[in-house]
Amino acid sequence: MLNNDASSSSENQPAWLQSYIDSPEKQRMLYKKTLIIVVFSQIFGGAGLAAGITVGALLAQDMLGTNSFAGVPTALFTLGSALAAYLVGRLSQGFGRRLGLATGFITGGIGAIGVVMAAVTNNIWILFAALFIYGFGTATNLQARYAGTDLATAKQRATAVSIAMVSTTFGAVAGPNMVDVMGSFATSIGVPALAGPFILAAAAYIVAGLVLFIFLRPDPFIVAEAIENAKKKNASKLSNFNSQTVTDNKRGIAVGATVMVLTQIVMVAIMTMTPVHMQHHGHGLSQVGIVIGIHIGSMYLPSLVTGVLVDKVGRTFMAMASGVTLLAAGVTAAMSSAGSMGGLMLALGLLGLGWNFGLISGTALIVDSTTPATRAKTQGTVDVLIALAGASGGALSGMVVASSSYATLSLAGGFLSLLLIPVIIWSRAKSTKVSA
Known about the structure:
There is one protein chain. By secondary structure, the protein is an all-alpha fold. Helices cover about 85% and strands about 0% of the residues. The chain contains 18 helices and no strands. Helix 3 packs antiparallel against helix 4, helix 5 (about 95-120) runs antiparallel to helix 6 and helix 11 (about 240-280) packs antiparallel against helix 15 (about 340-370). The protein is globular.
């Protein structure tokens, strides 16, 4: 495995790897190159991500003939993303980001092709299996945000995450707004219109994987791990603070994971049922595409500003801001008239923004709390929890709306997000005790 080289002593390092260990300038250049490659891959990855969000629930509703299970597609591709997060994390830990991320994106593309086949054959079981595999692209799209942090300094980490995320915006916003175009293209070749966006998703995910596989060389994770190991070898007094570092890391990982898990549950639950809610009240696919496009834009476009804020004003402050913003989103969605495009656009915009605050602050906490020796595995494990949280939110959302209303779902999600505040207060209180 490649990281075995990175774990060996400097005398046994390949010459190319040793040159990066010895040269901070080459490290900075590779950091910048990595961000550029991640940006290009995320543009395509974002387009692939948008298909499932926009029409997945509608496709299942059309094939099943009921909306009680409209949240199942989101739950399935989110469960698939849970498995993918684990596998991509392990692949990245063992062989580097390049192989892990490329495998995840290409597998997601194969899943999107399966969704199209299911729609053509009207086979619900193929649809469910394909949506599960399609989830690999969703998880990989999220895990790609870590690639830019491998060679970032502590003050660059949230900004590096934000650059990866904001580039997703271009594809993610374009995807929902191409629903009608891809629907027309699909019907012209004998495919149901609702499967059209998945044709785009298949091409986009596969291209994203190929961009990473071809161009992400040298692998930033392998270089970062080798640099960390070289530092450990040269350090002489680590033993006195190792135990304290482990304790602090565990707390930071727990808080970062909690922030991202709660924001994911709330965001996925409300987002999943919004297209169904809109369609039931007379909105067409183009209007659904506009609202979801604004939502996805709000998830990713503010990232550059969010990343700077997380690095400047702090991780905990932005995590609490996430909870307040998600509460505002839930209340707005609940109070908006079903026929009001303006109200739904505002609600879904706030929903995306709150998720953005939570994901970037939580991601920065995870990166701060890990070392290259365990970082990719830990990131993968945390993303499994995030994916399972999303699956739960997606599956339960349809049942909640079927038994009560969209307004009830929105309010419940908004108030659930407030749990972030006591979690942050707890973490800060524990930190104060440790430092005292």
